[in-house]
Amino acid sequence: MNENYNISASPHIRDKATSSNLMLMVLIALLPATIFGIYNFRHENAWLLVVVTTAVAVLSEYIYQKLMHKPVTIKDFSAAVTGLLLALNLPPTLPLWMGALGSIFAVIVVKQLFGGLGQNFMNPALAARCFLLISFTGRMTYFVYDGVTGATPLANLKAGETVDTMTMLLGNIRGTIGETSVLAIMIGAMFLLLMGVIDLRIPGTYIVTFVVFITIFGGHGFDAQYITAHLCGGGLMLGAWFMATDYVTSPITFRGQIVYGVCLGLLTGLFRLFGGSAEGVSYAIIISNLLVPLIEKVTLPKPFGKGGEK
Amino acid sequence: MGFLTFKGGIHPNDGKSLSKDQAITELLPKSDLLYPLSQHIGAPANPVVQKGDHVLKGQKIAEAGGFVSAPVYSSVSGTVKGVETRLNPTGSKVACIVIENDGNYEETEYEPIKSLEELTREDILNRIAEAGIVGMGGAGFPTRVKLSPKEPEKIDYIIANCAECEPYITADYRRMLEYTEELVSGMRVILSLFEHAKGVFAIEDNKKECIEKLKDSIKDELRMEVQVLQTKYPQGAERQLIYASTKRAIHSGMLPADAGCIVDNVETLVGIHYAVMEGRPLMERVVTVSGDAIQHPGNFKVLLGTNQQELVEAAGGFKTEPQKVISGGPMMGFAMMTLDTPVTKTSSSLLAFSEDAVAKEKPAPCINCGRCVEVCPCRLIPARLADYGERHDQETFAAQNGLECVECGSCSYVCPAKRPLKQSIGAMRKIALANRKKN
What we know:
The complex is a heterodimer. Chain A is mostly helical. Helix content of chain A is 60%, strand content 2%. Chain A is built from 14 helices and 2 strands, in the order ααααααββαααααααα. In chain A, α5 (124-135) packs across α14, α9 (182-194) runs parallel beside α12 (236-243) and α13 (254-274) packs antiparallel against α14 (281-298). Chain A is globular and about 75 Å long. Chain A starts with 18 loop residues before the first helix and ends in a 12-residue tail after the last helix. By secondary structure, chain B is of the alpha/beta class. Chain B is built from 14 helices and 17 strands. Chain B has helices at 121-130, 143-146, 171-178, 180-193, 208-217, 238-246, 266-278, 308-314, 357-360, 371-375, 382-390, 394-399, 410-414, 421-438; strands at 24-27, 33-36, 46-47, 54-55, 60-63, 72-73, 78-87, 93-101, 157-162, 198-204, 224-229, 261-265, 284-290, 298-303, 324-327, 334-336, 349-353. In chain B, a hairpin with a 5-residue loop joins β7 and β8. Chain B is globular, with a radius of gyration of 21 Å. The model of chain B has no long low-confidence stretch (mean pLDDT 94). The chains are: A mainly alpha, B alpha/beta.
């Protein structure tokens, strides 16, 4: 009798969830915002920028890994998520080559050079967006809707003008491709919440903290119209639900996630109210990304039986 | 609905329907019997028989090698063939006494008692120690030692671990249904040792029939109660069970007795009943044989020392060629490379699976999703601890409470990157504990 059955350490069973199907669920959740964006900016041919940015992200990962003789991991969908998220964060009129450059920067510089999946310390899509914003400020802040150039509602709000919160909720406004429709973003976010891919800890504390901050410092007190405009304007919703919740660049501890959410809310409020530009979500997120190791260190949970949660 | 529980844990497919309705059948061994000298935590037992000796069923063949140790008894009558080094179910090679079964099952004389009053406290403890009773849920800790806390008057609860939270295993379930009286009697014996203690049968809410049956048979017992727990893995882990049942939390440096608790599993309590009331040593246990590769999954009362190959034959053989066979549950059991191992005091089941879920998936980098943190019943950060383990960073591992891990495997189970988290943590823990002992 020498059957040579498989040997491995316990446990001998595994849950069905895999990294790639989690990423795939994020891609699916981004579809409503993507489809709406492509439709909303149909005159600007936004679809082309979305396709190019996403494809270049996947391709960069493939070529880099081939050149470095590493196993190719494009099947885990993480490069596709990065590319699509970047596209949704770009103005629809951006030249295609700039989108492609952003993708290359995101995947190669921010992700692969630091060790690939799971090793990057900043959200690749947002780091690339900030890179493009600094390099091509003009093109990155050039917003068009329905052929008409102008300021985004958030910029109008900052200038003290009134804005229509209903159109901001639906998304028929100027902005980046994926950020305009809060409705479409929320459909995707609900999907992720229901599937257990994300939970409320980070987006919840982020949004609550931000609301508290602008209530105190916004100069409008608790003005529902003003607060709604801030929540629906710019990249707050896209950032809170899809980028602040990025597993790799957010804390793993529960209390850490709460602290992280508070940091995001404070920084976003600070940048939006007191910063030079109307928007502040991207910078708030990548700066908070840098605080993650520190946050984790001070929020290490107490173990069971030593005063920890039971 | 049971609401008593702990935080964390998982809900794997429990696979219990394969065998839960199969009544316990007795299985008599055909080939030689193997008795490992180390079927428990502590010093190995010392053989007291020699090659060529004739032994009876119930005769002691090895005596305890110290206070934390346990004797071993022959479960058949026959001839001692010698002491050989053989594989045990956990994968290590250990010294085993080999006995050739003569098929007559001639038994020694036992000394049954009619009532517990005939015995003093010391008598009871001695009977338990002499019978070779150890924790039969899997740990194999000598029960006599467990029942001798420093301050016996401070024990408030005797918890019968009826959770059986491991998937597929139904041995305790069947024991509870078919040997309810023996189980309750075992509890009565322990309660007689601790006058202030209350006996609690802690059962998961998926075992409705057992809950009814137990409630019915203890309705006249003033010191016993049935507690219904939420069905969740690892509800039967000692620390989690104590918390679910009493809301007292202990850490790795404490004993259950420090929280006024003693936990014994179903099979152990039944063993205690036989040992004390009938004077019979530990010679048998119930084993579940199940898994998708088994023709007729079922529950068997098996004599200790029986070759595991015979369990598969008793269950109708293999339906399909298995890729993996496991001694114990799928969460904490041991994968065996061969079936040529004996049933020991701690073998609760033999599982055979046509597909190996572990070999199917390749480990990938951690994506920091936090699922392991969510499920960890010890409130640790398994992903980080596994990193420290892989890097042999013992200091950080210990500083971040790696030694608190109970190795339940929930983290490895949920990890979407399929990292063998428990394996890395477990390996580091072993090294850290060994080093701690040295210093």
